UniProtKB/TrEMBL annotation:
GO terms for cellular component: cytoplasm. GO terms for biological process: amino acid metabolic process; carboxylic acid metabolic process. Its cofactor is pyridoxal 5'-phosphate. GO terms for molecular function: L-tryptophan decarboxylase activity; pyridoxal phosphate binding. SUPFAM superfamilies: PLP-dependent transferases. The modification N6-(pyridoxal phosphate)lysine is found at K319. PROSITE patterns: DDC_GAD_HDC_YDC. It comes from Nicotiana sylvestris. Pfam families: Pyridoxal_deC (PF00282). The lineage of its organism: Eukaryota, Viridiplantae, Streptophyta, Embryophyta, Tracheophyta. PANTHER family: GROUP II PYRIDOXAL-5-PHOSPHATE DECARBOXYLASE, MIP05841P. It comes from the Eukaryota. Keywords: Decarboxylase, Lyase, Pyridoxal phosphate. This is Tyrosine decarboxylase 1-like isoform X1.
């Protein structure tokens, strides 16, 4: 049928691709007009969409085109994207998005993602697309050098880098590698004696990795981090826990430190912790998912001093490095540990290059077999922006966070809870009376009030049993005016709440 969308046609792709790029460009141009946090109720979409898929094809205009020219202005009309999908979207790229941690998009990242989607290869082995494997090795070596990681993490030695989907996948694969490495030494029946250690500020991804990896729940040690150390883990706490477990016949084998914890961006002391793990033959993993991006700046590089003691290191380029989700960079010193744990070699995947150990097959460094050409977008970001612009980008967000922190500190109704290190500000509204339960309720109500305005979106945490507000600066479009507007919303909503006390 004439005009029907074909599965793949170069000229149709050109026509519709232009329309899609225009739509996305208009979306970013108008993104500040949307409520940052979606205001819909659970189950809203089922009421709006039919119960079955359409039997006959529809047009792209029916589905997509949500803006039309009218008297030189863009005004919405009623296609499904505008009326049904966008109301249910929380706009992570909004300049007023301050929740969790950022998840960056950029023009360079988008172009790389587009090229990856266009090529659409499944690069599990080198032979399936040699460029995909070799470019990934090269760009991760570039990024490792920008972070001044030890040479052992480079692909030219026994280690190397690999792009995982998320930091959760990264910590899982190294935990499995560490588990199998120790079980080869002590026997597979000893799995019930293996012990994993972390701070109670460590991301919950490690707990899930232990559940998947068969580590007994009672052997997962979350060591308490206290406020007097700004919630960084004390080396003494780790040393005491390891010594106690050794004395009872258990086998300490894995420790995860964090650079920039989720709750407060605490920084665990890598040099001292690394010495403990090394003396006890434990795998030492460093999770720098958020804050690793800042460490390309010389003035922040000291936060990962001691990484030379680590067996693996991870940062999410998709958080704060202008690389579209998903792109989590993992480096290991000993790639053979990953390969021995995760490798399979069925007949249908055998080929001359792999059998001759001439190449890297990334299928043996990850959980799934298939993988996308993710290195393209990281390559685009590094080339189109360069390290100098990327450093300036990170520094700008840290400066904006510092300015917001100043406003909070100058208002006696509020308090800063823990010192800011990067671009996250942890603060709370002081209660009219010294009642912690009431203070927690007051800040919970403030968070709800602020987010309900639709003008911005923040998230919370709990530190030392206190309900804390988190404002993370990191969206690509955020400017000082957005910081000032956010602070005005906090002041107004706080005044309303306090007037009811």
């Amino acid at each position: 049928m004439e005009g029907e969308l074909k599965p793949m046609d170069a000229e149709q792709l050109r026509e519709y691709g232009h329309k899609m790029v225009d739509f996305i460009a208009d979306y970013y141009k108008n993104i500040e007009n949307f409520p940052v946090l979606s205001q819909v109720q659970p189950g809203y979409l089922r009421k709006l969409l039919p119960e079955t898929a359409p039997a006959h094809s529809e047009t792209l205009q029916d589905v997509l085109e949500g803006w039309q020219a009218c008297n030189l202005d863009l005004v919405p009309f009623d296609p499904d994207i505008q009326t049904k999908i966008l109301p249910g979207v929380t706009h992570w790229q909004s300049p007023d998005y301050f929740a969790y941690f950022p998840s960056n998009s950029s023009v360079a990242g988008f172009l790389g993602e587009m090229l990856s989607a266009g090529i659409n290869m499944v690069g599990f082995s080198w032979i399936t697309s040699p460029a995909a494997t070799e470019l990934e090795m090269i760009v991760l070596d570039w990024l490792a050098k920008a972070l001044k990681l030890p040479d052992e993490f480079l692909s030219t030695g026994q280690g190397g880098g690999v792009i995982q989907g998320t930091a959760s996948e990264a910590v899982l694969v190294v935990l499995l590698a560490a588990r199998d490495k120790v079980l080869r030494r002590v026997g597979k029946d000893a799995i019930g004696k293996l012990v994993v250690y972390c701070s109670d500020q460590t991301h919950s991804a490690l707990q899930k990795a232990c559940q998947i990896g068969g580590i007994h729940p009672e052997n997962f040690r979350m060591l308490k981090a206290v406020s007097c150390r700004d919630y960084a883990l004390s080396p003494d706490a780790l040393s005491e826990a390891v010594s106690h477990d050794l004395a009872t016949g258990l086998i300490p084998f894995f420790f995860c430190a964090t650079i920039g914890t989720t709750s407060s961006t605490a920084v665990d002391p890598l040099p001292a912790l690394g010495k403990i793990t090394k003396s006890n033959s434990m795998w030492f993993h460093v999770d720098a998912a958020y804050a690793g991006s800042a460490c390309i700046c010389p003035e922040f590089r000291h936060y990962i001093d001691g990484v030379e003691e680590a067996d693996s290191f991870n940062m999410n380029a998709h958080k704060w490095f202008l690389t579209n989700f998903d792109c989590s960079a993992l480096w290991v010193k000993d790639r053979s540990a990953l390969i021995q744990s995760l490798s399979t070699n069925p007949e249908f995947l055998k080929n001359k290059a792999s059998q001759g150990n001439l190449v890297v097959d990334y299928k043996d460094w990850q959980i799934p077999l298939g993988r996308r050409f993710r290195s393209l977008k990281l390559w685009m970001v590094l080339r189109l922006y360069g390290l100098e612009k990327l450093q300036a980008y990170v520094r700008n967000h840290i400066e904006l966070a510092r300015r917001f922190e100043e406003h909070v500190a100058q208002d006696q109704r509020f308090e800063i809870v823990t010192p800011r290190k990067f671009s996250l500000v942890c603060f709370r509204l002081r209660p009219p009376q010294s009642n912690e339960d009431y203070a927690n309720k007051l800040n919970h109500d403030l968070l709800d009030a602020v987010n309900s305005t639709g003008k911005l979106f923040i998230s919370h945490t709990v530190l030392s049993n206190r309900y804390i507000l988190r404002l993370a600066v990191g969206a690509p479009l955020t400017e000082e005016r957005h910081i000032l507007a956010a602070w005005k919303v906090f002041q107004d909503e706080a005044a309303t709440l306090l007037s009811k006390c």
